[in-house]
Specification:
305 residues; alpha/beta; four-stranded parallel sheet; 10 helices; binds zinc ion
């Protein structure tokens, strides 16, 4: 580069530097910490337990919009208008393979062309649905795969890895923080897996009865057998209740697990008939790690009797 060329470029360089100074001055925060709002990015997840992974890995950099929230039925869910608004502000969408996604994901993509979809179930071997059934609508669900993949610590590690990779792609400048959070989470998940393995290794009864068959992956991972009761719909009919009581007596089962939406009156009736108890376990709790810990304890105490 000759001197002449440098001289010609200098005015441009000066203007560029002046502009840069102005921009930097404009970006300088007033007194105190920077606004948090502009540094936070929005993502959407299908089910509440996925929010746990996003929050653990993304920390306060990520705001989470949850589609199927606490107390909702993951199998009959449809998005609400305010959720569609939060979705439109989202950078990432984390699917998990539950029913509503097949109909709604194409609509989400049409309405939000920049939204990036991440399948957090990718790479997880899906079990056949525990209880092939025909819904009230007459649809035969016999070929469905079991959607409750998040209820296993080992599957949880796969889900968390998808979320970690996607958050890093979206925000490479935060990779170091995300990685530290992710590794801490993985260590806790490993420890949880070991504690559950130990808690359930010595139980005398390996079969458990559950109203809604959400625990197939958990059962597979820890050598248990899930005996599901539900045949579709939300509450069992009188004849279904009678059948489940017969089965519990045949299998010598004294504890039946139900989800929080199960009718308390039905639970009491069943407990009285089997001379045992009905224990509530939540497939959709937000605190995924604590929830699986509690579920393992409930199973261990029920099956160890
Ligand atoms: Zn379910």
């Amino acid at each position: 580069m000759d001197k002449n060329h440098l001289r010609q470029r200098r005015p441009i360089l000066v203007i560029y530097l002046m502009a840069l100074v102005l921009v930097l001055a404009a970006c300088q925060p007033a007194a105190g910490p920077a606004e948090t709002g502009e540094d936070v990015f929005q993502v959407t997840v299908s089910v509440l337990p996925q929010a746990y992974f996003v929050e653990r890995i993304g920390g306060d950099r990520v705001a989470v919009n949850v589609m199927v929230g606490a107390g909702e039925d993951a199998h009959t869910y449809e998005p609400k208008p305010e959720q569609m608004v939060a979705l439109s502000q989202s950078t990432l969408f984390f699917s998990i393979g539950i029913e509503y996604e097949a109909a709604w994901l194409p609509r989400f993509a049409d309405a939000n062309p920049d939204l990036v979809f991440i399948d957090t179930a990718a790479g997880i071997d899906r079990l056949e649905e525990a209880f092939p059934h025909t819904d009230d609508d007459g649809n035969d669900h016999a070929d469905d795969l079991d959607p409750h993949i998040w209820l296993s610590p080992r599957n949880g590690e796969v889900i968390a890895s998808h979320i970690f990779n996607a958050l890093v792609s979206a925000r490479p400048q935060d990779e170091a923080d995300f990685k530290a959070n992710y590794e801490a989470l993985l260590a806790e998940m490993d420890a949880l897996d070991q504690r559950i393995t130990q808690a359930l290794s010595g139980v005398s009864q390996r079969k458990f009865m559950v109203f809604h068959p959400a625990w197939g992956y958990f059962a597979r991972d820890y050598g248990l057998v899930q005996l599901p009761i539900q045949t579709g719909g939300t509450d069992p009919s009188a004849s279904e209740l009678a059948a489940l009581i017969d089965q519990a007596q045949e299998e010598n089962i004294r504890v039946i697990f139900v989800q929080p939406t199960f009718s308390a009156a039905n639970a009491r009736a069943v407990a009285a008939e089997i001379g045992g108890e009905v224990v509530t376990v939540d497939p959709l709790a937000r605190d995924w790690l604590e929830n699986l810990e509690n579920v393992a304890e409930a199973f261990a105490s029920a099956l160890g009797q």
